[in-house]
Amino acid sequence: MNHAQGKVSLPVIKRLPKYYRYISQMQQNGVVKVSSSELARMMGTTASQVRQDFNCFGGFGQQGIGYNVDVLLHEIGRLLFGDGEKLPTILIGAGRLGRAVSRFLTTDTNGYHLLAVFDVQQDLVGQNLDGIPIHHIDELEDFCATHKPQVAVLCLPREGAKELSGRLVELGIRGFWNFSHYDLSIPYPNVTVENAHLGDSLMSLGYRLRND
């Protein structure tokens, strides 16, 4: 964990993947150096904001002569993915959304290792989701005791998430990627939660189309 991690605000952390994406593209296009103003233009922000963001993590080199693209990509990659060890992950809910999310998790190199999928429906048990076995939810305790997953991806209805989240925290889950409409951050202040509200995102789009 970076020494400055404790001081870094959530908005800065949420901008890191976007930086990583743009800088990866630059590297693929053979770009060697990039200035804070060029990065700002791509990010839709200011050069001063880019410098402030990077200073949270030690600056990433000398701003005056531009940033080295390889160095930036390596350093931001280290912040996002650590030493390359993937986080052991389980997914709860093998419905349509769970299927789409599992495909993303197993094909995208994003620092997670999907170990197993769990569902309540007996007829799904024993099947595979993108090569990952589906277990019955009753096997959760035994599985977690053996494999010690750290992350749970919740692709189940609100009530299911509400009932299951406490059980998962007790089983050692430290982070949730939460697609249910139940806000997990309230009961578990010490657990890291990323709430992915598809409906909120869609409503934001609607607002912008109607009001911008």
User: What's the order of the H and E elements?
Assistant: HEHHEHEHEEEHEHEEH
User: Order of strands in the sheet with the most strands?
Assistant: 5-6-4-3-7-8-9
At the fold tier of CATH, the topology name of the largest domain is: Rossmann fold
Q: Percent of residues in helical segments?
A: 40-55%
Secondary structure tally, helices? 8
Which residue ranges are poorly predicted, with pLDDT under 50 across at least 5 consecutive positions? Answer: 1-5
Per CATH, the architecture of the largest domain is 3-Layer(aba) Sandwich
Question: Which radius of gyration do the C-alpha atoms yield?
Answer: 20 Å
Shape: elongated
Overall domain count: 2
Task: Please give a handful of descriptors for the protein shown.
2 domains; Rossmann fold; elongated; single chain; 17% strand; alpha/beta; 212 residues; seven-stranded mixed β-sheet; Arc Repressor Mutant, subunit A; cytoplasm; DNA-binding; repressor; two-stranded antiparallel ribbon; 8 helices
